[in-house]
Amino acid sequence: MTEERQAQVPPAEDDRAPAQHVEVWRLATWLVPVAVQAVLAVWVGVMWLLSQGPLGERDAFGALVLTGVIVAAAAALLVGGYMLRSAGSPRRRAVGLSVAGSGIAVFVAAATYALLLLPWLKPD
Question: Where are the domains of the chain?
């Protein structure tokens, strides 16, 4: 009966996750602050390029913010997805996970700013 009871008890959480996955998540957590800065830099660069062309008007600032963040988030998701799916080291997958997650976080923050805060702050 003791053997039956031991067979029914689920393993501890550390036993279920291979050490390689734990290492990926640990590294990805530490790399997020750096990845957010990289995604923000891409976003600012894209916004600057767009402001030199068709979205350079003062009235188009919301569209400039949204367009820039969509391009930056798409680039972050593409790069992060490519690195995550690679069969390389856990460090490479961790960088991909942190870049993709940072792209999503920057997109949510910038879209909230452009869609909710900018119209509220815009003088009539």
Answer: 34-121
